[in-house]
Description:
Blueprint: H1 3-11, H2 18-27, H3 33-52, H4 58-81, E1 90-95, H5 103-114, E2 118-121, H6 128-138, E3 142-146, H7 154-165, E4 173-177, H8 183-188, E5 193-194, H9 198-208
Cobalamin (B12) binds at residues 58, 98-105, 107-108, 144-146, 148-151, 175-180, 195, 197-198, 201.
Amino acid sequence: MDFEKLTELIIELEVDDIEAAVKEALDADGKDPFDILNALTKGMDEVGRRYEEKEYYLTELVLAGETMKEAFKVLQPALAASDKSIDKTKIILATVQGDNHDIGKNILGSLLLSSGFEVHDLGMDVDENVIVEKVKETGATIIALSSLLTMTVEHIKTTHEALKSAGLRDKVKLIVGGAPLNMELAKRLGADDFADDAVDGVRHIKSLAGK
Ligand code: B12
């Protein structure tokens, strides 16, 4: 199992074959899990490029996320067991309270994982106090919130305020995304940043993390 093949499997969205391929690379070939991660990330970069060039659409982006998730099932334990450390910027990911849309959030989550971030996904309909507690528990420095409903964007503000009350607001960067938002509204609600889609979101988050 060579690295090009792993990159290719991601680009070709081979969701059914990727897990076995990563396993083979780890077990039979004894490959370094970090080199495998690099090969997979290279594939995701290409998927992102194709999406931006409109060669791939949302369906492909979703499938690429699923393919990465399958790969991570076997890769994650190997990465954790390895003594090398990668940059583990911690990110809390959630869909705001009252909102049960999570497809976009999940795509962002899988792209962040494949970029080597430590992702704490709290799911959908998440109360701001749960987010505050998770920041305390993990020491996360970035919070990425998704809101798809006009009705729920207010919860970005309540999260911003809850962080402020807890004395944590200046310790974290808050980035938001979702169709009803734009940079201006995001800033008005107290967020630090906004991105239109998940690919751009990863780019913004890398910059917020100082990478
Ligand atoms: C699928 C869907 C659902 C599914 C959600 C399933 C799930 N597990 O997510 C179900 C059926 C549950 C649902 C329910 C409802 N929905 Co709905 N839903 C949609 C739909 C069709 C697609 C959303 C989606 O997944 N898009 C694909 C993903 C990939 O795109 P995305 O979420 O926008 O994410 C991208 C970017 O926004 C960005 N992004 C997203 N989050 C983040 C976060 C960060 C930090 C960053 C950087 C980027 C980022 O990156 C993503 C990928 O590039 C949209 C219409 C549409 N075309 O958007 C309506 C839509 C969002 N729904 C809507 C409505 C009204 C509802 C309901 C209220 C309907 C009802 N009357 O019951 C309920 C609300 C339930 C609730 N409490 O949340 C409206 C919202 C209108 C508004 N502006 O408020 C929409 C726009 C449909 C419409 N035109 O009316 N819905």
